[in-house]
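Quick one: sequence plus adenosine-5'-triphosphate SMILES, need structure tokens.
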Amino acid sequence: MATTTFPTSTPFFVHHGTRRPSVNLRTAAVVYGRGGRRWRPLRVACEKVVGIDLGTTNSAVAAMEGGKPTIVTNAEGARTTPSVVAYTKAGDRLVGQIAKRQAVVNPENTFFSVKRFIGRKMNEVAEESKQVSYRLVRDDNGNVKLDCPAIGKQFAAEEISAQVLRKLVDDASKFLNDKVTKAVITVPAYFNDSQRTATKDAGRIAGLDVLRIINEPTAASLAYGFEKKNNETILVFDLGGGTFDVSGMYHEF
Ligand SMILES: Nc1ncnc2c1ncn2[C@@H]1O[C@H](COP(=O)(O)OP(=O)(O)OP(=O)(O)O)[C@@H](O)[C@H]1O
Ligand SMILES: [Mg+2]
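Reply:
Sure thing.
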């Protein structure tokens, strides 16, 4: 998984004047010269970047821990989170396992398989729309909206995906004991520009800085080849909730 780690807190110095301070490297203390506080230490907290697999059925998050990619455990203690968002009759929002659990009793307000609609026009999803229990509506631009009678609102798919991303990142934050605002998100290799842009927008709506959108088979081959040094061709089989993808990859080191 293409994730990057920086030290959690790295001191940088910002120039507020002309006098350069002397820095004791052993203690990292800044010694100000005569004439006062012209240089001040600026502490830049460098955060972890997480890798997010935003799946049709389930999602997962990974982060680099001790130089190795590690799957984050969510608040429920699971390594994957159902990509499901629901609104109860009382107007409460549920995300993940808790939303999935109540799907049968609240089908018209439980949004699953939303990845099938992200970045797509209503006229492209005739087949997919028959496979969900909630109502889809077409907005003025022909885009797909998800109708939520419980709260009388219509959501764009990226707004629902944003709720899933928000939970994933909140849980990752707790697990890593660090603020998380930067992410790399994977998408199927067949996703077009509109679907990629909408996935990035979902990240933005969730308050994330989406550093990169990468293809799922690329992420899989990166994870596989993480410590390997040989050139080789591999086939990635991804039996997913939305599609079954097979990709051929040539690995060069
Ligand atoms: N190799 C497998 N054998 C049997 N069941 C599988 C296998 N891989 C996945 N599944 C099942 O298929 C379902 C969907 O898989 P998964 O959560 O990986 O899809 P997804 O990542 O959400 O979908 P997509 O990748 O299409 O967006 C899960 O219920 C999972 O248990
Ligand atoms: Mg998948």
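The first strand starts at residue 10 and ends at 15. The chain is about 20% helix and 35% strand.
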